[in-house]
Design brief:
globular; six-stranded parallel sheet; alpha/beta; Gfo/Idh/MocA_oxidoreduct; single chain; nine-stranded mixed sheet; oxidoreductase activity; oxidoreductase; NAD(P)-bd_dom_sf; Dihydrodipicolinate Reductase, domain 2; nucleotide binding
């Protein structure tokens, strides 16, 4: 691995500290070169050699940088991704990609024009739980899937200390924040739907942003329900998938975020390993015999995404997350808000 990609991160809050810097730091194909940090000095304390800028435009002017991670508040994604591409930088942008489909289309066209990589950090594709669900479906263990339900529930009665998440700006709320994960997973498993129905609400006291949603994605012979609530103390299984010959039930069990919050690095032993009590339940028919067993999980690893980014930039390999996929997520979010507002199914 001879090429080293010098990388800058646009913010050093939780996203920068937990989901990006550790992977850039550990992977020998990258150098954590620069970061934007306006008031604190956490980045330099943890990474003494990093250059610290106080604004995104100042960092984008750094000619050394080849890759920029845009992990700022959702409503700023379009502005900063556009500026980074115009500065000649490859870009990773946090989910949600943009606030509108039109913004997504503009950025995809600009990246193509500039011949630069534009990728969206849909990291939950690399969770251990999602990986085993995809494996079960790819092996046809359930037969034709008729119904699927995917949850991302939390119990967070208090409003977030991250003020930008609780202000009614474009792109805030649970559907953009967590729904983008669920929609992306639904599209990866089942493809683009024909229509969507949605119920999007505010349920926490004093909340200004949506914190509950239920979406139904309509396919020919399949319905996929995507659900999230911030007031679920005792959560249901995150994946409930039912086919003509069997079912698969799985909790959300990926431990990478917890490991990162404890300060572990992605090259630590047992990274992303799932405990046996978290294994998913498969109940199906194989070779004419009923099978009911717990399936061992597959280790989650967000480094697979970053390694894919390296290969895409250094060796012209495929983009690990095509921005068109992320544009489709935004397309469904927009349709879901319309559905919830008008109380009807919206064709896609």
């Amino acid at each position: 691995m001879s090429k080293v990609i010098k990388t800058g991160i646009c913010s050093f809050g939780m996203s920068g500290q937990v989901f990006h810097a550790p992977f850039i730091y550990v992977n020998p194909g990258f150098e954590f070169t620069a970061v934007v940090e306006r008031s604190k000095d956490l980045a330099r304390q943890r990474y003494p050699n990093v250059k610290v800028y106080t604004s995104v435009p100042d960092m984008l002017a750094d000619k050394e940088l080849e890759l920029i991670v845009v992990n700022t508040p959702n409503y700023t994604h379009f502005e900063y991704v556009k500026a980074a591409l115009e500065a000649g930088k490859n870009v990773i942008v946090e989910k949600p990609f943009t606030v509108t489909t039109a913004e997504a289309e503009t950025l995809i066209a600009l990246a193509k024009e500039k011949k630069l990589l534009l990728s969206v950090y849909h990291n939950r594709r690399y969770d251990s739980d999602f990986k085993i669900v995809r494996k079960v479906l790819s092996e046809g263990l359930l037969g034709d899937v008729l119904e699927a339900e995917i949850h991302y529930d939390r119990f967070k009665e208090e409003l977030s200390y991250k003020k930008h998440k609780e202000v009614a700006n474009p792109g805030t709320g649970s559907l953009y924040d967590l729904g983008s994960h669920l929609i992306d997973q639904g599209l990866q498993l089942f493809g683009f739907p024909k229509a969507v129905w949605a119920d999007i609400r505010i349920i926490r006291k004093d909340s200004l942003v949506d914190d509950y949603f239920e979406l139904v994605l309509f396919y020919d012979n399949l319905r996929v329900r995507l659900k999230c609530s911030y007031l679920i103390r005792e959560a249901l299984p995150s994946y409930q998938i039912h086919g003509r010959i069997g079912s698969f039930i799985k909790t959300k069990s990926d431990i990478q975020e917890a490991q990162l919050l404890r300060g572990l690095l992605p090259n630590s032993p047992d990274w992303g390993a799932e405990a046996p009590h978290e294994w998913g339940l498969l109940h199906t028919t194989i070779d004419g015999k009923t099978v009911k067993q717990y399936l061992p999980g597959t280790n989650g690893n967000y480094m697979d995404y970053y390694q894919g980014i390296y290969e895409a930039i250094a060796n012209n390999a495929p983009n690990p997350v095509d921005p068109k996929d992320a544009e489709n997520v935004i397309r469904i979010i927009e349709a879901a808000f319309l559905s919830s507002k008008e109380g009807r199914v919206v064709n896609l």
